[in-house]
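#lab-general

N.A. 3:47 PM
ok so I finally got the sequence cleaned up, no stray characters, all 322 residues accounted for. can someone with queue access submit it? mine expired

B.Y. 3:52 PM
send it over

N.A. 3:53 PM
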Amino acid sequence: MNTRNDLYAPAPQSTGYKPLTDTPAGCPRNPLIAALMSAVLPGFGQLYNGRVNSAIWIFLCFCLLTIPLMAIVALYLPVALTLPVLVLSLVLTLGLWLYAIVAAWRQASLSKRYRRPAWQTGGLYAAVFVVCSLIILPLLVNWVQSRQVQAFRIPSGSMQPTILAGDFLFANKNYNCPYCRKNVQRGDAAVFVYPNNRNLYYIKRIIALPGDEVEFAANGLSVNGVALSAPGEAPEAGEVIEESINGVSWRAIAGTVADGSRTVIVKPGHVFVMGDNRDHSSDSRKFGQVPLSDVVGRARQVWFSKGEDGIRWDRIGLSLVP
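B.Y. 4:20 PM
back already:
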Protein backbone atom coordinates (compact mmCIF):
# COMPACT_ATOMS: atom_id res chain seq x y z
CA MET A 1 0.00 0.00 0.00
CA ASN A 2 1.32 3.34 -0.94
CA THR A 3 1.30 5.57 2.07
CA ARG A 4 1.94 9.28 1.62
CA ASN A 5 3.49 9.96 5.02
CA ASP A 6 4.78 13.24 3.75
CA LEU A 7 1.17 14.50 3.68
CA TYR A 8 0.95 14.11 7.44
CA ALA A 9 4.04 16.01 8.55
CA PRO A 10 3.67 17.55 12.09
CA ALA A 11 2.84 21.23 12.35
CA PRO A 12 5.70 23.50 13.46
CA GLN A 13 5.78 24.31 17.19
CA SER A 14 5.01 27.90 18.31
CA THR A 15 8.07 29.79 19.57
CA GLY A 16 6.14 32.67 21.18
CA TYR A 17 7.71 35.09 18.72
CA LYS A 18 5.55 37.89 17.39
CA PRO A 19 6.46 39.89 14.35
CA LEU A 20 7.66 43.45 15.01
CA THR A 21 4.63 44.79 13.20
CA ASP A 22 2.38 43.42 15.99
CA THR A 23 4.15 45.45 18.73
CA PRO A 24 2.09 48.44 20.03
CA ALA A 25 3.47 51.74 18.83
CA GLY A 26 5.38 53.94 21.30
CA CYS A 27 4.05 57.23 22.72
CA PRO A 28 6.92 59.70 22.62
CA ARG A 29 6.65 62.59 25.09
CA ASN A 30 6.15 66.12 23.80
CA PRO A 31 9.00 68.34 25.16
CA LEU A 32 6.88 71.51 25.02
CA ILE A 33 4.05 69.94 27.00
CA ALA A 34 6.50 68.57 29.57
CA ALA A 35 8.16 71.98 30.03
CA LEU A 36 4.84 73.80 30.31
CA MET A 37 3.56 71.33 32.89
CA SER A 38 6.65 71.89 35.07
CA ALA A 39 6.25 75.64 34.60
CA VAL A 40 2.71 75.40 35.96
CA LEU A 41 3.70 73.12 38.86
CA PRO A 42 7.30 72.04 39.55
CA GLY A 43 7.59 68.29 39.10
CA PHE A 44 4.43 68.03 36.99
CA GLY A 45 6.44 67.65 33.76
CA GLN A 46 8.49 64.87 35.35
CA LEU A 47 5.25 63.02 36.13
CA TYR A 48 4.23 63.41 32.47
CA ASN A 49 7.58 61.85 31.51
CA GLY A 50 6.99 58.89 33.84
CA ARG A 51 9.69 59.98 36.34
CA VAL A 52 7.54 59.59 39.46
CA ASN A 53 10.33 59.74 42.05
CA SER A 54 11.82 62.83 40.44
CA ALA A 55 8.41 64.49 40.34
CA ILE A 56 7.82 63.85 44.06
CA TRP A 57 11.23 65.12 45.17
CA ILE A 58 11.07 68.26 43.04
CA PHE A 59 7.60 69.14 44.36
CA LEU A 60 8.58 68.49 47.99
CA CYS A 61 11.73 70.62 47.68
CA PHE A 62 9.68 73.39 46.08
CA CYS A 63 7.17 73.33 48.96
CA LEU A 64 9.98 73.38 51.53
CA LEU A 65 11.84 76.29 49.92
CA THR A 66 8.83 78.50 49.20
CA ILE A 67 6.88 78.28 52.45
CA PRO A 68 8.26 76.66 55.65
CA LEU A 69 11.88 77.68 55.05
CA MET A 70 10.95 81.33 54.46
CA ALA A 71 8.86 81.29 57.65
CA ILE A 72 11.76 79.87 59.66
CA VAL A 73 14.12 82.45 58.19
CA ALA A 74 11.76 85.35 58.89
CA LEU A 75 11.16 84.30 62.51
CA TYR A 76 14.18 82.57 63.96
CA LEU A 77 17.30 83.94 62.28
CA PRO A 78 18.96 87.07 63.64
CA VAL A 79 17.38 90.12 62.05
CA ALA A 80 20.65 91.07 60.33
CA LEU A 81 20.63 87.76 58.43
CA THR A 82 16.93 87.64 57.59
CA LEU A 83 16.95 89.61 54.33
CA PRO A 84 20.11 88.03 52.78
CA VAL A 85 18.90 84.50 53.56
CA LEU A 86 15.43 85.28 52.21
CA VAL A 87 17.00 86.49 48.96
CA LEU A 88 19.11 83.33 48.83
CA SER A 89 16.06 81.11 49.39
CA LEU A 90 14.21 82.98 46.63
CA VAL A 91 17.13 82.40 44.25
CA LEU A 92 17.17 78.70 45.16
CA THR A 93 13.42 78.43 44.61
CA LEU A 94 13.61 80.03 41.17
CA GLY A 95 16.63 77.86 40.33
CA LEU A 96 14.73 74.70 41.29
CA TRP A 97 11.74 75.80 39.21
CA LEU A 98 13.96 76.47 36.19
CA TYR A 99 15.71 73.13 36.66
CA ALA A 100 12.35 71.34 36.69
CA ILE A 101 11.36 73.01 33.40
CA VAL A 102 14.66 72.32 31.62
CA ALA A 103 14.92 68.75 32.92
CA ALA A 104 11.36 67.98 31.84
CA TRP A 105 12.12 69.26 28.33
CA ARG A 106 15.31 67.19 28.04
CA GLN A 107 13.71 64.02 29.43
CA ALA A 108 10.84 64.29 26.95
CA SER A 109 13.25 64.93 24.06
CA LEU A 110 15.07 61.67 24.85
CA SER A 111 11.88 59.60 25.21
CA LYS A 112 11.38 58.73 21.54
CA ARG A 113 10.29 55.13 22.25
CA TYR A 114 8.45 55.87 25.51
CA ARG A 115 5.57 53.50 26.26
CA ARG A 116 2.89 55.15 28.37
CA PRO A 117 1.87 53.14 31.46
CA ALA A 118 -1.80 52.49 32.05
CA TRP A 119 -1.89 54.91 35.02
CA GLN A 120 -0.89 57.92 32.91
CA THR A 121 -4.30 59.34 32.08
CA GLY A 122 -5.81 62.80 31.87
CA GLY A 123 -7.84 62.06 34.99
CA LEU A 124 -4.69 61.32 37.00
CA TYR A 125 -3.02 64.54 35.83
CA ALA A 126 -6.11 66.55 36.81
CA ALA A 127 -6.26 64.88 40.25
CA VAL A 128 -2.56 65.50 40.94
CA PHE A 129 -2.86 69.15 39.90
CA VAL A 130 -5.91 69.72 42.12
CA VAL A 131 -4.37 68.02 45.16
CA CYS A 132 -0.98 69.73 44.86
CA SER A 133 -1.90 73.25 43.76
CA LEU A 134 -5.37 73.65 45.23
CA ILE A 135 -5.05 71.69 48.48
CA ILE A 136 -1.45 71.08 49.65
CA LEU A 137 0.06 74.47 48.75
CA PRO A 138 -2.91 76.54 50.06
CA LEU A 139 -2.91 74.57 53.32
CA LEU A 140 0.80 75.23 53.78
CA VAL A 141 0.37 78.95 53.03
CA ASN A 142 -2.59 79.20 55.41
CA TRP A 143 -0.69 77.44 58.20
CA VAL A 144 2.31 79.75 57.83
CA GLN A 145 0.23 82.94 57.64
CA SER A 146 -2.00 82.02 60.58
CA ARG A 147 0.62 80.48 62.89
CA GLN A 148 4.08 81.66 61.85
CA VAL A 149 4.65 84.80 59.78
CA GLN A 150 2.67 87.07 57.48
CA ALA A 151 3.62 89.98 55.24
CA PHE A 152 1.71 93.27 55.43
CA ARG A 153 1.75 96.50 53.45
CA ILE A 154 1.35 99.70 55.48
CA PRO A 155 -1.06 102.12 53.72
CA SER A 156 -0.98 105.09 56.13
CA GLY A 157 1.40 107.14 58.25
CA SER A 158 -0.30 106.53 61.59
CA MET A 159 2.81 104.78 62.95
CA GLN A 160 5.37 107.35 61.80
CA PRO A 161 8.25 107.84 62.37
CA THR A 162 8.91 104.16 63.16
CA ILE A 163 6.77 102.63 60.40
CA LEU A 164 6.11 104.60 57.22
CA ALA A 165 3.36 104.47 54.62
CA GLY A 166 4.61 102.19 51.85
CA ASP A 167 6.55 99.87 54.16
CA PHE A 168 6.18 96.14 53.61
CA LEU A 169 6.88 94.25 56.80
CA PHE A 170 6.95 90.79 58.30
CA ALA A 171 4.77 90.22 61.36
CA ASN A 172 5.47 87.39 63.79
CA LYS A 173 2.23 85.39 64.11
CA ASN A 174 3.78 83.03 66.68
CA TYR A 175 2.57 85.52 69.26
CA ASN A 176 -0.13 85.91 71.91
CA CYS A 177 -1.15 82.27 72.29
CA PRO A 178 -0.70 79.67 75.07
CA TYR A 179 2.30 77.97 73.43
CA CYS A 180 3.75 80.95 71.58
CA ARG A 181 7.27 82.23 72.13
CA LYS A 182 6.15 85.83 72.77
CA ASN A 183 3.32 87.30 74.79
CA VAL A 184 1.85 90.77 74.34
CA GLN A 185 3.90 93.44 76.11
CA ARG A 186 3.68 97.19 76.49
CA GLY A 187 5.54 98.91 73.68
CA ASP A 188 4.98 96.20 71.06
CA ALA A 189 4.09 97.33 67.54
CA ALA A 190 1.22 94.88 67.22
CA VAL A 191 -1.10 93.76 64.43
CA PHE A 192 -4.73 93.24 65.43
CA VAL A 193 -8.18 92.79 63.94
CA TYR A 194 -9.87 96.17 63.48
CA PRO A 195 -12.94 96.18 65.78
CA ASN A 196 -15.20 97.99 63.30
CA ASN A 197 -14.36 95.73 60.34
CA ARG A 198 -13.07 92.26 61.09
CA ASN A 199 -11.81 91.86 57.54
CA LEU A 200 -9.12 94.50 58.18
CA TYR A 201 -5.89 94.43 60.16
CA TYR A 202 -4.48 97.49 61.94
CA ILE A 203 -1.02 98.05 63.39
CA LYS A 204 -0.59 100.22 66.49
CA ARG A 205 1.56 100.49 69.60
CA ILE A 206 0.47 98.53 72.70
CA ILE A 207 0.34 101.24 75.34
CA ALA A 208 -1.38 99.45 78.20
CA LEU A 209 -2.43 95.94 79.26
CA PRO A 210 -5.52 94.73 81.15
CA GLY A 211 -5.95 96.60 84.44
CA ASP A 212 -3.46 99.37 83.58
CA GLU A 213 -4.27 103.01 84.20
CA VAL A 214 -3.60 105.32 81.25
CA GLU A 215 -3.39 109.03 82.04
CA PHE A 216 -3.51 111.79 79.44
CA ALA A 217 -2.03 115.12 80.51
CA ALA A 218 -0.71 118.31 78.93
CA ASN A 219 2.91 117.26 79.50
CA GLY A 220 2.55 113.76 78.05
CA LEU A 221 1.22 110.26 78.50
CA SER A 222 1.70 108.01 81.52
CA VAL A 223 0.85 104.41 82.34
CA ASN A 224 0.37 103.35 85.96
CA GLY A 225 1.85 106.67 87.02
CA VAL A 226 5.03 106.26 84.93
CA ALA A 227 5.56 108.85 82.20
CA LEU A 228 6.36 107.46 78.76
CA SER A 229 8.49 110.48 77.80
CA ALA A 230 11.13 112.42 79.71
CA PRO A 231 9.68 114.91 82.21
CA GLY A 232 9.69 118.56 81.22
CA GLU A 233 7.66 121.02 79.26
CA ALA A 234 4.84 119.79 77.07
CA PRO A 235 6.18 118.96 73.60
CA GLU A 236 4.86 120.93 70.67
CA ALA A 237 2.50 119.25 68.20
CA GLY A 238 4.52 117.56 65.45
CA GLU A 239 7.68 117.31 67.54
CA VAL A 240 9.46 113.94 67.49
CA ILE A 241 9.82 112.64 71.05
CA GLU A 242 11.34 109.57 72.65
CA GLU A 243 9.04 107.29 74.62
CA SER A 244 9.78 104.13 76.57
CA ILE A 245 8.13 101.68 78.93
CA ASN A 246 9.45 98.51 80.58
CA GLY A 247 12.74 98.87 78.71
CA VAL A 248 11.13 99.18 75.27
CA SER A 249 11.86 102.49 73.50
CA TRP A 250 10.44 104.09 70.36
CA ARG A 251 9.97 107.46 68.71
CA ALA A 252 6.61 109.20 68.43
CA ILE A 253 5.26 112.41 66.95
CA ALA A 254 3.63 114.50 69.68
CA GLY A 255 0.06 115.57 69.10
CA THR A 256 -2.13 118.36 70.38
CA VAL A 257 -3.74 118.21 73.79
CA ALA A 258 -7.11 117.39 72.22
CA ASP A 259 -7.45 114.34 74.48
CA GLY A 260 -7.57 116.56 77.53
CA SER A 261 -6.58 115.53 81.04
CA ARG A 262 -8.30 112.25 81.72
CA THR A 263 -7.67 108.73 82.95
CA VAL A 264 -8.64 105.45 81.33
CA ILE A 265 -8.67 102.05 83.05
CA VAL A 266 -8.05 99.17 80.65
CA LYS A 267 -10.76 96.52 80.89
CA PRO A 268 -9.95 92.86 81.64
CA GLY A 269 -9.03 90.95 78.51
CA HIS A 270 -8.32 94.14 76.51
CA VAL A 271 -5.39 96.35 75.52
CA PHE A 272 -5.13 100.08 74.86
CA VAL A 273 -3.43 100.90 71.54
CA MET A 274 -2.23 104.16 70.01
CA GLY A 275 -0.47 105.18 66.81
CA ASP A 276 2.96 106.79 67.14
CA ASN A 277 1.76 109.67 64.95
CA ARG A 278 -0.66 110.91 67.59
CA ASP A 279 -2.63 113.50 65.61
CA HIS A 280 -2.99 111.25 62.56
CA SER A 281 -4.05 107.92 64.02
CA SER A 282 -7.36 106.19 64.54
CA ASP A 283 -6.79 104.10 67.65
CA SER A 284 -8.25 103.25 71.08
CA ARG A 285 -9.01 106.93 71.64
CA LYS A 286 -11.60 106.62 68.85
CA PHE A 287 -12.68 103.01 68.40
CA GLY A 288 -12.13 101.87 71.98
CA GLN A 289 -10.04 99.18 73.61
CA VAL A 290 -9.04 96.09 71.62
CA PRO A 291 -9.80 92.54 72.84
CA LEU A 292 -6.55 90.83 73.68
CA SER A 293 -7.67 87.81 71.65
CA ASP A 294 -7.75 90.00 68.50
CA VAL A 295 -4.03 90.80 68.74
CA VAL A 296 -2.57 88.40 66.17
CA GLY A 297 0.97 89.48 65.40
CA ARG A 298 4.00 91.61 66.22
CA ALA A 299 5.88 93.68 63.63
CA ARG A 300 9.37 92.26 63.17
CA GLN A 301 11.16 93.69 60.13
CA VAL A 302 10.72 95.89 57.07
CA TRP A 303 11.56 93.77 54.01
CA PHE A 304 10.70 96.40 51.38
CA SER A 305 9.72 100.07 51.34
CA LYS A 306 8.57 102.40 48.59
CA GLY A 307 7.39 105.99 48.87
CA GLU A 308 6.51 108.81 46.49
CA ASP A 309 10.21 109.27 45.66
CA GLY A 310 10.77 105.60 44.88
CA ILE A 311 12.38 102.73 46.78
CA ARG A 312 13.69 103.59 50.25
CA TRP A 313 16.83 101.47 50.18
CA ASP A 314 17.90 102.52 53.67
CA ARG A 315 14.77 100.97 55.21
CA ILE A 316 15.08 97.52 53.62
CA GLY A 317 15.96 95.05 56.37
CA LEU A 318 15.17 97.55 59.17
CA SER A 319 14.41 95.81 62.47
CA LEU A 320 11.21 96.77 64.30
CA VAL A 321 11.93 94.86 67.50
CA PRO A 322 14.11 96.11 70.35
